[in-house]
Amino acid sequence: MDCEFVPSVCSYCGTGCGVLFEVIDGRINRTLPLKSHPVNQGKLCIKGWNLHEYINSYMRLKGPLVRENGRLEKATWDEAVNQAARRFTRIKEEHGPDSIGVLVSAKITNEENYLAQKLTRAVIGTNNVDHCARL
Amino acid sequence: MDMVKAAKELLLQDRVDIFLGYHKLDGHQIPHGFTKARVADLDQLEISLNRYPLEKIACDLAQKDPTLKIGILARDCSQRALNLLYTWDQLNPENIETLTVNCCPSSLSTHGDCSYLKPKTTGEYKKAHGIDYNDSPKDFMAEHDSQDRLSRWMYEFQKCIKCYGCRNVCPVCFCKECSLEHPNLVEPGVLPAEVPIFHLIRATHMAGRCIDCGLCEDACPAHIPLRMLYREVNDAVSDIFGYVPGDHIEKSPFSIIGKTVELTPAPMDV
Ligand code: SF4
Ligand code: SF4
Ligand code: SF4
Ligand code: SF4
């Protein structure tokens, strides 16, 4: 039996607490706080303590889905991205760039958030970009 | 290092299938399960000043494979936790090998491999309104009347963010169904935590059970002096029943499931 511990960062909010995944035979079994992490110093909130539950959830989405005729169908990333790009372009042409808004998330990294606002401003052409942490 | 040699021997002689210790990864001292297949990794074995509940990890492994033989780097608190887990049938002592580390409890000692041997500092506001981490339950009882004690504990409890970290990290909290998640006792999804009931449920469960490792207090984001609370209940258990959890492989006076027992209560000093 294999048992190793993998340090990571909690993906639930922008605080970025250090976590330690207990991995038994390749499956995450428990989440512990990373004691030597400068942000949380060995403490977590209830969400961080339960990270392994959503990672192992059978309801977790592991690939893109595209809505076809009202039903969500499995698709490849290329299909999904192309489909989204096509529809956004149509909305932008018909109703103008300010008809689109982008809401980014604390669950993605700082750098990904930066790229999302860049896409919103430079590609879509709107300042309608906001963040879930601005409650 | 002798510890490395001893751990290698345990694995190479097949006396254990896995050895739980610590190593350094990305600059963090974290637990690791060493195996025979990669026995050379043991050269990186560390004692680590950060303590993690290795006994709880051993329980996780034993649950997946009850025949697994597990070696553990064991501090004093780990050994108390293991004794307790043996008496509650969570681990089989025949499947556990320990390698003990220096955790000298003597104040004359200049060195001990444990973060817990450093006294914690308590801020002035906490000293005035709450509870000093380093206070002993007996002094605390003697120095404050019951009204004052209640208001100090309530000051501490109302900071709780209900993270369940105290229970999650605790090596002796192994219940399949935890009372702290029972909707009739603790309403789910409600914040702030219901105080003091949330903490008193856990305190009563820790009577005759808490081995005073301090991991809960380390994990508490609200800086609640949990060890002191459980020391207080355990003082009552040792005064009345003469039982100190984890001291020996001896069942707690409260393990009465399936038996008829007579507990002789003694008067409590209030
Ligand atoms: S543990 Fe809680 S506070 Fe820390 S990053 Fe995760 S969700 Fe945020
Ligand atoms: S000190 Fe805390 S974590 Fe350790 S055994 Fe007692 S209740 Fe559990
Ligand atoms: S708090 Fe009580 S019920 Fe919950 S796991 Fe610990 S001992 Fe069991
Ligand atoms: S660790 Fe502290 S804050 Fe979290 S549930 Fe326990 S007492 Fe409350």
TrEMBL record, chain A:
One record GO biological process: respiratory electron transport chain
Enzyme Commission (EC) number: 1.2.1.2
Keyword line: 4Fe-4S, Iron, Iron-sulfur, Metal-binding, Oxidoreductase
Gene3D superfamilies, alphabetized: 3.40.50.740, ADC-like domains
Residue ranges constituting the 4Fe-4S Mo/W bis-MGD-type domain according to the UniProt record: 3-59
Gene Ontology cellular component annotations, sorted alphabetically: membrane
Uppermost EC category: oxidoreductase
Short name of any one Pfam family annotated for the protein: Molybdop_Fe4S4
A GO molecular-function annotation: 4 iron, 4 sulfur cluster binding
Xref: InterPro entries: Mopterin_OxRdtase, Mopterin_OxRdtase_4Fe-4S_dom, Prok_molybdopt-oxidoreductase
Isomerase among keywords: no
PANTHER family noted in UniProt: FORMATE DEHYDROGENASE H, RESPIRATORY NITRATE REDUCTASE
Protein name: NAD-dependent formate dehydrogenase subunit alpha
Protein's organism: Desulfotignum phosphitoxidans DSM 13687
Organism classification: Bacteria, Pseudomonadati, Thermodesulfobacteriota, Desulfobacteria, Desulfobacterales
Encoding gene (name): fdhF3
